[in-house]
Specification:
With 126 residues, the protein is α+β, with helices and mostly antiparallel strands. It has one domain (31-123). It is built from four helices and three strands, in the order ααααβββ. The chain has helices spanning 9-29, 36-53, 57-73, 80-84, and strands spanning 100-105, 108-113, 119-123. The chain has a three-stranded antiparallel β-sheet with strand order 1-2-3, with no helix packed on it. α2 (36-53) runs antiparallel to α3 (57-73). The chain is globular, with a radius of gyration of 21 Å. The structure holds zinc ion. Consists of a catalytic RNA component and at least 4-5 protein subunits. Part of ribonuclease P, a protein complex that generates mature tRNA molecules by cleaving their 5'-ends. It is found in: Cytoplasm.
Amino acid sequence: MGFFGAGLEPVVSHLADTTRVRNAFDAARIPLGMGIPAERIDRLQDLAREATAEGDIDRAREYVRLARRIGERHRISLQRRFRRFSCDDCDAYLRPGATARVRLRSGHVAIRCLACGATARYPYEG
Ligand SMILES: [Zn+2]
């Protein structure tokens, strides 16, 4: 009889198998070239967005700068989505309605950083 008692052993081993299968599935979903650094950048993006929502623009800047450093060190380009949502001039995380004003123009999107006033333009897609 094992630690959990005879009746529970099959359940426990089933749970362990389920976890293993799920981990393998998650690993398989990560595109080639993605790895831990990319996941850390994703996490930093979440933190920057949350800090901005709480009005802490400086803390959000620290997350943005850290994410940029990780990207440079590991030679991975920050996902376009992240680049577009951080200000090149002052590193503020650009959250529409909080730190950014977004305007659709013909052929491009103009994103104005409300922290420093810089405007970045990106080609409009879709
Ligand atoms: Zn700015």
